[in-house]
């Protein structure tokens, strides 16, 4: 049997999303060949495209109003309905964004594009009218398929849902599910807590998260028209997307809008308090020469200046920064830190979490450092800056656990385990709550294209979408294609049934504190109990 796949290499073309509307030429061509489906939504009719593989795509569908002007720093608002049919063929605008700690200038250059699949074939605009989403569906019928809602990464500061890497077509085609991706407010526009200065801005520290809730409400109200089931919704995300998912898991407003969740290589277990976030917002006002009683003038500052100022603050590590512009805990929308809320049962749905084995190799490479060049002096200096008086004991323990490691290997292992330990901690909190199963994975496949990255942060992203052929680092590698088929099926089955399973994978047991059963995703997937357990125990003993 021949399996139909999208040929990304042949279909790549310059896509301009300066407008939410397709060009007249594209619209006419779609209509002429009878492949222009039209679907009703709560705001009006939308026209999409039926691809050659039979998948129906709708891109740039508005799910809320523009966030510009008086809506800036406010909770997402309903959009005015439109007349006629709106063309939703091109990617919509991404949120305004600039350089940040998540995306400093410099780094891997072309290797970064090869790794993430971010290249010149996709060109998108930035706009405060960015609350749009994309739908990929096998059929426009009444089947009520499970819905997989993807939340993009990039910390809380950058990113978007455009491009081939997270295109939902292959998953929709091969797994008979509906996939959704979306854009939302980021950085200063999404997470600037102004409530301490003006009571009208009570939601401002979490409006980026409230955008996600608005998108999930749109899914609840509209997805049946696209062949989806609003009562079987998975939310999942990688890196910053995992942080956003873990934050959603603690938000009362998200309750009931999703039914399974996955955090991939990222959590947000603890977030700044309202007092800390207020202090940081005050630094922004100072940088902009605004008095605290002139808070509403922030809605009139040109967006370019606002983004540039916030980026400067994040890149410089301004005094009192406390993690930059991220969600704010101890607020009406996020009453508790995610780690506390999840442990108390705020998200009683099946949950999967995991990371890659060498997360930190990407971050070192992005800063221009090949792990192979890390010296002993660099290793000790960096660890003391991160772990202070516990650095020496930590390094001594890791050396004992990994006597074969070079200084660069040790630095990658120790930095990576910050992400891994946070994932384990959130899994433990979910188990503590009881009532729903928890699953753990560790992705260990290494690409031969950029071998110094090993199993780096983000290398697994295209596997879950079955899109490994879309980026050069995996391309047509037979191992990658086989593993992608298995893990994309497991992710889809988790969306369908609340438990991951797939041909090519062993039976996947629930994660427990007794055995710490973990699916190791490699060329030969296997279940291991407590992989890298000596490192976990060391960190727990030292409290780092």
What are the key terms here?
Rossmann fold, 544 residues, globular, 3-stranded mixed β-sheet, alpha/beta, 11-stranded mixed β-sheet, 2 domains, single chain, 16 strands
Structural notes for this entry:
Helix 12 runs parallel beside helix 14 and helix 13 runs antiparallel to helix 17. By secondary structure, this protein is α/β, with parallel strands linked by helices. The N and C termini lie far apart (51 Å). Helix content is 33%, strand content 15%. The protein folds into two domains: 8-316, Alpha/Beta hydrolase fold, catalytic domain (Rossmann fold); 364-542, Alpha/Beta hydrolase fold, catalytic domain (Rossmann fold), CATH 3.40.50.1820. It is globular, with a radius of gyration of 23 Å. The chain has 17 helices and 16 strands. It has helices spanning 8-11, 24-32, 110-116, 169-175, 187-191, 207-222, 240-248, 274-287, 303-316, 338-343, 360-366, 376-387, 391-401, 407-433, 461-464, 478-497, 533-542; strands at 15-16, 38-41, 44-47, 49-50, 56-62, 85-87, 122-123, 132-137, 145-151, 178-182, 228-238, 260-264, 351-356, 438-443, 517-521, 526-529. Strand 2 (38-41) and strand 3 (44-47) form a beta hairpin.
Secondary structure layout:
Layout: H1 8-11, E1 15-16, H2 24-32, E2 38-41, E3 44-47, E4 49-50, E5 56-62, E6 85-87, H3 110-116, E7 122-123, E8 132-137, E9 145-151, H4 169-175, E10 178-182, H5 187-191, H6 207-222, E11 228-238, H7 240-248, E12 260-264, H8 274-287, H9 303-316, H10 338-343, E13 351-356, H11 360-366, H12 376-387, H13 391-401, H14 407-433, E14 438-443, H15 461-464, H16 478-497, E15 517-521, E16 526-529, H17 533-542
Parallel strand pairs: 1-7, 3-6, 9-10, 9-11, 11-12, 12-13, 13-14, 14-15
Antiparallel strand pairs: 2-3, 4-5, 5-8, 8-10, 15-16
């Amino acid at each position: 049997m021949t399996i139909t796949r999208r040929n990304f290499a042949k279909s790549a073309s310059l896509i301009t999303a300066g407008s939410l509307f397709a060009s007249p030429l594209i619209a006419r061509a779609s209509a002429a060949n009878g492949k222009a489906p039209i679907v009703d939504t709560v705001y009006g009719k939308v026209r999409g495209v039926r691809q050659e593989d039979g998948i129906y795509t709708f891109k740039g569908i508005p799910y809320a109003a523009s966030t510009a002007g008086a809506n800036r720093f406010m909770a997402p608002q309903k959009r005015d309905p439109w007349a006629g049919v709106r063309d939703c063929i091109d990617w919509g605008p991404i949120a305004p964004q600039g350089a940040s700690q998540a995306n400093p200038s410099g780094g891997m250059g072309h290797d970064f594009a090869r790794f993430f699949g971010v290249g010149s074939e996709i060109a998108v605009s930035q706009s405060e009218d960015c609350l749009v989403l994309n739908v990929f569906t096998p059929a426009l019928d009444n089947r009520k398929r499970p819905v997989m809602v993807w939340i993009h990464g990039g910390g809380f500061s950058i990113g978007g849902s455009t491009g081939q890497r997270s295109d939902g077509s292959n998953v929709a085609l091969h797994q008979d599910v509906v996939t959704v991706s979306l854009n939302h407010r980021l950085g200063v526009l999404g997470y600037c807590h102004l409530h301490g200065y003006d009571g009208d801005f009570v939601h401002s520290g979490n409006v980026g998260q409230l955008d996600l809730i608005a998108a999930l409400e749109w899914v609840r109200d509209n997805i049946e028209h696209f062949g989806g089931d609003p009562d079987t919704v998975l939310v999942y995300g990688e890196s910053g997307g995992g942080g956003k998912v873990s934050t959603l898991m603690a938000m009362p407003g998200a309750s009931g809008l999703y039914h399974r969740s996955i955090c991939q290589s990222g959590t947000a277990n603890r977030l700044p308090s309202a007092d800390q976030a207020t202090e940081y917002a005050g630094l922004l006002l100072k940088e902009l020469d605004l008095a605290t009683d002139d808070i509403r003038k922030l809605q009139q500052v040109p967006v370019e200046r606002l983004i540039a100022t916030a980026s400067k603050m994040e890149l410089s590590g301004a005094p009192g920064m406390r993690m930059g512009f991220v969600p704010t805990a101890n607020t009406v929308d996020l009453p508790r830190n995610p780690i506390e809320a999840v442990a108390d049962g705020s998200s009683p749905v099946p949950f999967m979490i995991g990371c890659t084995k060498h997360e930190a190799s990407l971050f070192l490479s992005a800063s221009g450092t090949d792990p192979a060049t890390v010296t002993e002096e660099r290793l000790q200096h960096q660890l003391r800056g991160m772990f202070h008086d516990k650095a020496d004991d930590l390094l001594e323990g890791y050396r004992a656990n990994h006597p074969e490691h070079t200084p660069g290997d040790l630095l990658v292992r120790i930095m990576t385990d910050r992400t891994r330990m946070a994932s384990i901690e959130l899994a433990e909190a979910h188990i503590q709550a009881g009532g729903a199963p928890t699953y753990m994975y560790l992705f260990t496949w290494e690409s031969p294209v950029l071998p110094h990255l090993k199993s780096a942060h983000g290398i697994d992203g295209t596997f879950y979408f079955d899109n490994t052929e879309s980026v050069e680092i995996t391309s047509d590698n037979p191992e990658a294609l086989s593993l992608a088929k298995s893990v994309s099926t497991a992710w889809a089955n988790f969306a369908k049934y609340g438990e991951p399973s797939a041909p090519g994978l062993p039976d996947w047991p629930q994660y427990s504190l007794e055995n710490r059963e973990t699916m190791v995703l490699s060329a030969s997937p296997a279940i291991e109990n407590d992989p890298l357990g000596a490192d976990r125990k060391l960190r727990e003993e030292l409290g780092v």
